[in-house]
Design a protein that fits this description.
There is one protein chain. Strands 11-14-17-22-19 form a five-stranded antiparallel β-sheet. The chain is globular, with a radius of gyration of 20 Å. The chain has four domains: 2-93, Rossmann fold (3-Layer(aba) Sandwich); 120-178, Dna Ligase, domain 1; 182-305, 2-Layer Sandwich (D-amino Acid Aminotransferase, Chain A, domain 1); 321-416, Glycinamide Ribonucleotide Synthetase, Chain A, domain 4 (Alpha-Beta Complex). Helix content is 32%, strand content 28%. The relative contact order is 0.14. The protein has 417 residues and is α+β, with helices and mostly antiparallel strands. The N and C termini lie far apart (43 Å). The chain has helices at 10-20, 35-38, 51-60, 71-75, 78-84, 94-101, 103-112, 126-136, 159-170, 234-252, 285-289, 297-305, 345-348, 385-398, 412-416, and strands at 2-7, 27-32, 65-68, 88-90, 120-123, 140-144, 153-156, 175-178, 184-193, 197-199, 204-205, 208-210, 214-217, 222-225, 258-268, 271-278, 321-328, 341-343, 354-358, 361-364, 367-370, 374-382, 400-401.
Length: 417
C-alpha cells in the first residue's frame, strides 16, 4: 500500500516504524517528517495543515491511505478535503475533530451522550473563571478551550497561579474550569470507523516535567504499557459507557468520527471518568502501544478509514512490557534551547529491544541536532517492566544533549508494585 503519514514528531515516527515492521511491503512517505524519519522513509516538505496542498500531493502521487498524526491538520479540515478526493484517510473531519479542538464542544457531546466526566464551567472572563474556581475549590483545574500543544492545562493548589493561567489563556479565547478528579490516569486509544470501535492496549503517560509529578505540564515525558493493575473489565466498560456513546452521538449529529479516539481517563472512587478526548494518537503513549501490536497496523487504519471495522476481531498484542522515556531540551516547556548536537544514538540502538522515535531533530554535519522541545523518545521492550525500564535508561544514558532533561521515574511504580 502507498501511505502518506502527516506529521513531524515521535508519534509519527512510531507509526511509521510499526508500518515498516509489517510483512507487507508498503511505500511510505512522510510530510514533513524529521531527520530521524528521513533516515527511514522519504520525506516531503509540505504544509500538513493546508488541505489543498496535501490533497493535491496525495492525488498526484496515487496515495492509497493518508494517516494524519497531529491535531492541527485535523482541526483545519485536511481530512475532509482528502475524503472528497476519494482517498481513504485515517483522521476525523473538521467538525468531529472539535472533540479535541474545543473542550466546550467535547463537554457538550459528553453530556448529550451521558458520558461520565467531571463538572466544568466555561469562562469567557476572568471574573467568571474566578467564580468557578471558588465554586469547585482547590486543587484548581484550568484548561485552555482550544489547542495548546499539551501545555494549556494547569492543575494546582496555588490560587494565584490558577488565576494567572486563566488570565493568560483568556487572551486567546475561553477557558474551562473543572472540578479536580483524583485517581490513576489511563490513556486508551480506540479505532473508529464512524460507527464501530476497536480498542488498543491501555497505557499511562507522565505529563509533568519532573520526577514525582513535579514541575509544569508538558506534552508528555514518558509512558508505559500495558497496565497490569487495571481490572479485566476496564476496556469493555470504557467501550460501553464512553467510546461507543460518544461515537454514536457524533454520528447522530452528522459528524462521524473516523480515526483515533483518544480517551484520557481517570479511575476515581466513583468510577471511570473522562478527563479529555483527543482526536488522534497520543504522544508518548503511541511509542509504547504500537511496538506491542501484533495485528498489522495498516489493516486496522485502512479498515477504520473505509468503514470496515464492524465484525473485525480486537487487535492482538504481545505480552511484552514497553517503556518510553522522553529526552527534552534545556528550557522546555517554556523556552527550549535548540540547535545543540545529539550524540550516542547509534550506541543506544545497540541495546536489545531499544528503538528511538525522533521528534524535534534536524540533520547537521552527518549527525543530529535538537530543533524543538521534546527531542526524542527512547523506547524499550522487555520481558517485564524491570527489564524494559533497565534497557530504556541504559540507552538514555548513552545519549548526550547539552542541557537535556528527562524523568528518571517512568514506570518505577509498576516495577515496585
Amino acid at each position: 500500500m502507498k501511505i502518506l503519514v502527516l506529521g513531524s514528531g515521535a508519534r509519527e515516527h512510531a507509526i511509521i516504524t510499526a508500518l515498516l515492521a509489517e510483512e507487507a511491503s508498503h511505500e511510505i512517505i512522510a510530510a514533513p517528517g524529521n531527520a530521524g524519519i528521513a533516515a527511514d522513509v522519504p520525506v516531503i516538505h509540505l504544509d500538513p495543515t493546508n488541505p489543498t496542498v496535501v490533497t493535491d500531493f496525495a492525488v498526484d502521487n496515487d496515495i492509497e491511505l493518508v494517516v494524519i498524526g497531529p491535531e492541527a491538520p485535523l482541526v483545519e479540515g485536511v481530512a475532509d478535503r482528502i475524503r472528497r478526493s476519494g482517498i481513504a484517510v485515517f483522521g476525523p473531519g473538521k467538525a468531529a475533530a472539535q472533540l479535541e479542538g474545543s473542550k466546550t464542544f467535547a463537554k457538550r457531546i459528553m453530556e448529550a451522550a451521558s458520558v461520565p466526566t467531571g463538572r466544568a464551567t466555561r469562562a469567557g472572563t476572568l471574573d467568571e473563571a474566578i467564580a468557578a474556581m471558588d465554586e469547585y475549590g482547590a486543587p484548581h483545574v484550568i484548561k485552555a478551550d482550544g489547542l495548546a500543544a499539551g501545555k494549556g492545562v494547569l492543575v494546582t493548589g496555588d490560587r494565584d497561579a490558577a488565576v494567572a493561567h486563566a488570565e493568560f489563556y483568556l487572551k486567546q479565547g475561553s477557558v474551562l474550569v473543572e472540578e479536580f478528579l483524583d485517581g490513576q490516569e489511563v490513556s486508551l486509544f480506540l479505532l473508529s470507523d464512524g460507527h464501530n470501535v476497536l480498542p488498543l492496549s491501555p497505557a499511562q503517560d507522565y505529563k509533568r516535567l519532573l520526577d514525582a509529578d513535579a514541575g509544569p505540564n508538558t506534552g508528555g515525558m514518558g509512558a508505559y504499557s500495558p497496565l497490569p493493575w487495571l481490572p479485566d473489565s476496564f476496556v469493555d466498560e470504557v467501550i460501553d459507557t464512553i467510546a461507543l456513546p460518544t461515537v454514536r452521538q457524533l454520528a447522530e449529529e452528522q459528524t462521524p468520527f473516523i480515526g483515533l479516539l483518544y480517551c484520557g481517563l481517570i479511575v476515581t472512587e466513583r468510577g471511570i471518568r473522562v478527563i479529555e478526548f483527543n482526536a488522534r494518537f497520543g504522544d508518548p503513549e503511541t511509542q509504547v502501544v504500537l511496538p506491542r501490536l501484533k495485528t498489522p497496523l495498516s489493516e486496522l487504519l485502512f479498515a477504520a478509514a473505509t468503514g470496515g471495522l464492524g465484525g473485525k476481531p480486537r487487535p492482538e498484542f504481545s505480552t511484552d512490557a514497553c517503556v518510553t522515556v522522553v529526552l527534552a531540551s534545556e528550557g522546555y516547556p517554556e523556552t527550549p534551547i535548540t540547535g545543540r548536537p545529539i550524540t550516542g544514538i547509534a550506541d543506544a540502538l545497540e541495546i536489545e529491544g531499544v528503538t528511538i522515535a525522533h521528534a524535534a531533530t534536524a540533520a547537521s554535519g552527518g549527525g543530529f541536532v535538537s530543533s524543538g522541545g521534546r527531542v526524542l523518545s527512547v523506547v524499550a521492550r522487555g520481558a517485564d517492566f524491570a527489564d524494559a525500564r533497565d534497557r530504556a535508561y541504559r540507552a538514555m544514558k548513552l545519549i548526550t544533549l547539552e542541557g537535556g532533561q528527562f524523568r528518571t521515574d517512568i514506570a518505577a511504580r509498576v516495577v515496585a508494585s
